[in-house]
Amino acid sequence: MDIFEAIANETRRKIIKILKEKGKAGFSDLMNELSIDSPSLAFHLRKLGNLIQKVNDEYVLTEEGKRAYNIIMEVEGKEEVKEKSSTPIIASPPDIVKISSIGIYEITPELVKRLKDNKNKLEIYEVGVLKIDKSVKPEDINDIFEKIYEVGIIMCEPDQYSAISSKISEVGFVTSPNSPMSKLIDLNKIATNFHKMFLRKTGKITVFDSPIKPPKNLEVELDGSKLTLTQGESHLKVECSSFDDAEINLGDKAKIELDGCSAVLSLITLEKLSIEADGSKAELNTEVKEVNIDSDGSEVDLNLTGSEKVSIDSDGSNIKGKLAFPSGGNLDIDSNASNIVLTLDLPKDAGIITDVDSNMSYVKVPPIRQGEKRLKISADVNVGKLMIEES
Q1: What domains can you pick out in the chain, each with its CATH number?
Q2: pLDDT tens digits along 245-268
Q3: What is the bridge-based pairing of β-strands 281-296 and 253-259?
């Protein structure tokens, strides 16, 4: 990734600014500064590549990173950082912040305050060492934790442990920071070994696992990947062999690029969805007004509701499923050497208009009929099968 691609993302620009301002920062410090969860931060740190380096468990800018900072300042028309991001504003924070797949995670008074102010709770799992600062009050600990599981070591005071014991499961052991055993623990070694063990166990790493702000428009590019899109509270989980295999940019117009990854995305509804799949599998179950599917050698399962316009461009693919057009609309299909089988859910009084051109293909579409709410089916089919029926 070149320097301009690395700083194209706002979160990564903020990380560069923080490291320039402070000189260095640890993983937990950056999480607290940015108010993002560990999968999100780990993803962006990996994307920064040679712009940063880790020295004694803290991140610093490299010479290339300093050059990136200067570029950011030039683009923004600034000569220096004029404001700190130590108290970031969070828009629509999630109820549960998930922390996973890291070696060491520390609970500080500052983190507790931020979580309580934003009415968040922590779910911590697959973490090597969980440290709780002794100044954190037991009653506050109880308020911020949802659950803790699959953690190697918890280091906390006895009264802190009493406050959270009911929320803990599958933990190696619990010890006080001042106990003789704690002095023998090499935290860095444990963190490194834990990360290696996690990679061996899964074969893939979780590059993103967090609630997200619901986008209006979503664009997804799949290359040898699998996407499952379901209806539900907005959440995204992505697993890949490497952080380099995914690019995730969220917002009202979200874009996700996956190479050899698997992703599960939950959304209640969308205005527009664009899927480009190459040698991939996509299962799409959602409410969306406009859909564009470009499929090359892929398998796509559809269960779409609330649609007004659906466009399918298929080359050597298998596409099947159900499409609901509650008010009529347009269904455009361009198929080459593909197998497409669709079921339509239409109002009883819906009319149908068809315009089909086929070559050496099996084509079956509903007959033309009059109706107030019209669905227009346009299809160009070359060497393949197109079957469209009503439910």
Answers
A1: 3-76 (1.10.10.10), 96-202 (no CATH), 205-390 (2.160.20)
A2: 888 888 788 899 998 889 999 999
A3: unpaired
